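for the writeup, i need someone to sanity check this before i put it in the appendix. the sequnce is what the collaborator sent (i think, or maybe the updated version? ugh). structure was predicted straight from it, no edits. if anything looks off just tell me and ill rerun, i have time this weekend
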Amino acid sequence: MNRNDLRAPVGIVDYGLGNLQSVLNACERLQQPAVLIQDPADLATARAIILPGVAAFDHGMRSLHSRGFVEPLRRAALCDKKPFLGLCLGMQLLADWGSEGQGAAGLGLIPGTVERFAEGSLRVPHIGWNDIHVNPGRACPLPLRDGVDFYFVHSYYFKPQNEADVLAWTDYGIRFASIIGRDNIVGCQFHPEKSHQAGIELMATFFGSLC
């Protein structure tokens, strides 16, 4: 299937975790046909894939494994080169390894690990609005705007192996990767579907630039 076939739907991975209705609503607002995918075989019919998630890293990977999604997602992203957007936990699951819970191997789509914020003067979890700063050393596939606020809820952050995979940084005690990307794969640590107009604009740029 041609991924640029606008009649094909965006596939939102339903693995039992995440605020799926908010993501569906955002796609509807952007006039992007979207469906929930519960059967991994249906990834083949999707024009693009969104992996949402609100849970611990190890729980997320157990859910993907138990429902048979891990290898089909890797194949869709790496072999079929489908546009792939990870949101919050969905971004973290792109990593090689996550330390949350009992620890678990991730999807391994973008090299890196997921680590917990150190306890200090700032509250953990990081909850609320914070701005992004575009990585000046990275030719970004998305037309991001510097200094835009998005809504975050997380205690862990993606620590990339290669700084070239960071599209934008955010400061919260430390500088952490808030948007990562490699080829057709993009991940956002924040929730664009909960970030009002800025989030809708970012999802629009993803669909417009990669799909």
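The mean pLDDT is 93. The first strand starts at residue 10 and ends at 13.
thx in advance!!
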